Amino acid sequence: MATIKEIAKESGVSIATVSNIIHGKPGASDETRKKVLETIKRLNYTPNVIAQNLKQKKNRTIGIITEDLTVFNTPSIVDGINEYCDDHNYQFVLGNLRLYQKYNKKFYTENKYYKHVEEEFKMMKSKQVEGIIYIGCHCREIKCIPYDLGIPIVTAYVFDQDKNFTSVIFNDEQGAYDATEKLIKAGHTKIGVIAGIKESIHTQERLLGYQRALYDNQILFNPRLILYGDWDRESGRKISKELIKLGVTAIFSMNDMMAGGVYDYLESIEKRVGKDISLIGFDNREISTAYNPMLSTMELPLYDIGKKSAQLLINSIENENEKINHDIYKINCNLAERKSIFDFK
């Protein structure tokens, strides 16, 4: 591999001139710039990024810690971070805790797994990263992030209500509002809800969005039309049976898995989603396109969560003397519109 010294010799210019051209600095003529760039290409020169960063006393490297890289939300968030880093000349080191693979859902609520998180943060800092993004595999409040590392930290898909660090999550209330509004615009006024676990912050936020959409459209709120499931398909089947008995013409399911239960129940009574009952889900999981007809659902902005997280972290790194406001940023969801909603007249 060619060196910058060899590029300079081959081009008949100084090492400083080659360096300035590589870094986009002015001073060289167009002819010289063209000659040097052609030589770089011909000799397949690659800048030594590590050496350059050491000279600048900055390594332009961030750490990414994932709770579990195999969970559906995580790859798209990492991809968003990756693109932002590429665009801003940053590298990243990836650490995967594999918590879901090891412990299933237990670690969501049990703090005995916190030590694994703390150890990973210390390990990541030992790699000389300038900041860390922590990606959760279930959106929830967490209390396991060490605050005394001395480098900026941003969390994605999880948050700290006390705002000890900056967090980026999706907007549950807005997503539920738009989902309900979509059903209302299709002519439905008796809209049932298959809610998640009652204590879940997602359930609570999505109920707020549902109620606000009814209020804005002057539809009387009926609490009997809200029934609580457990996020799994079977609870969706049982609840849809009860809601249909109550005469609903449309159902908002708070996730795509419970929406699957609606398809199951309607098939058992020889009725169809999109013809006899309008249905909208939440998450835009892969399974939503496997239903027949395909499910309209609110898409989580995972890629955008990643990009925003990287932007906030890199801004903190590059403006280290500025005061940081540790806020919770909410990114809006988008509707993935398919064939599960019909116009009710």
Give an account of the 3D structure:
This protein is α/β, with parallel strands linked by helices. The chain has three domains: 4-47, 434 Repressor (Amino-terminal Domain) (Orthogonal Bundle); 58-170 and 302-331, Rossmann fold, CATH 3.40.50.2300; 172-300, Rossmann fold (3-Layer(aba) Sandwich). Helix content is 41%, strand content 16%. It has twelve helices and twelve strands. It has helices at residues 4-11, 15-22, 30-42, 49-55, 74-87, 99-103, 114-126, 172-185, 201-216, 233-245, 256-268, 302-318, and strands at 61-66, 91-96, 132-135, 153-156, 166-170, 191-195, 226-228, 250-253, 278-283, 296-299, 328-331, 334-336. The strands form two sheets. A six-stranded parallel β-sheet has the order 2-1-3-4-5-11, with helices on both faces. Residues 2-56 form the HTH lacI-type domain. Its EC number is 5.1.1.1. This is LacI family transcriptional regulator. One of its GO terms (molecular function) is alanine racemase activity. Keywords: DNA-binding, Isomerase, Repressor, Transcription, Transcription regulation.
